[in-house]
Design goal:
The chain is α+β, with helices and mostly antiparallel strands and about 325 residues long. It folds into two domains: about 140 residues, Roll (Pnp Oxidase, Chain A); about 130 residues, Winged helix-like DNA-binding domain superfamily/Winged helix DNA-binding domain (Arc Repressor Mutant, subunit A, Orthogonal Bundle). It is about 35% helix and about 25% strand. A seven-stranded antiparallel β-sheet has the order 3-2-6-7-8-5-4. The radius of gyration is 28 Å and the shape is elongated. About 20% of the residues are buried.
Length: about 325
Amino acid sequence: MNNHTPPFDSSAFRRALGMFATGVTIVTARAGDGTPVGMTANSFNSVSLDPPMVLWSLAKSARSLPVFHAAEHWNVHILANEQNDLANRFARAGEDKFAGLSLEPALADAPFLAGCSARFQCRTVFRYEGGDHIIFVGEVVGFDRSEMAPLLYVSGEYALATRLASPIATEVTGAADASAEPAPFTEQLLGYLLGRAHYQFMWGFRRTLDELGISHGEFFVLSLLAVRAALDADQITAHTAYTGIAADTALLSAMRARGLLSASADPAPRYALSPAGHAASRRVLAAAHAVEAALVEQLGGREAAGLRNLLKHLIRASDPGLPTLWGASA
């Protein structure tokens, strides 16, 4: 019988702990000489509601430990989903972390950062030894929150939080044959979800397109040239290839004849929006923004931020090599 205890794998232990999603915080205090000090931490947690108490921990090897150990007050900032650059800044050593940041008034002298999902102003009540860390327990003397989605950290990466969606189907129209193979077309099919969401979104401003007499192809061309002007026919075709709509010379000539586009002289004309095209584009985009605003209000800021993030991942993963839209011309 082998009684030897296997060696403890610290790296594997860290990876296992990383499966527990946490928020991302910046904890701040002020040194005795008035210097502001801050660091990124995900060890923050609640302790008690009555009295209101929270805790966080700091490595004994941290250079800022003497400041926090001596501080009577410190502030915990739960970062919003767009503050990952701030989290990275306060996680690095050897730079002025507060450079260019505007601090807000606080109950005590600890630095108070703006733009966070929530903030807790704390008074130190206990300090505990916790292995290679010191655990700080503080009484919350003030707090505030916003509606901004919080930044998360899981498996060594930043993440966003979203609610689990309920099924789209609300009724069953017939019993499935238990012996049949699983249906290939279900509401879990990503293509179905993306397609339905796209067409339902466009349905919201379809009336504006119809009033202006703008087709799908013309809509894509107007949207493209609102961002990237003076493109030739080949460039426009390359940008709109993913739509399956032929934004070819015939379509561009028709839009020019309708007064929606202007073009430079042949033999290789470059197209741009005419004054009428700009007006049509602004009207359509205003209608689309109104639809988006209504959807964001229903979804909530957290889900909207998560949706944008996932769609960006999907676009990168499925990109067949389309030209860059939001950058300089190739």
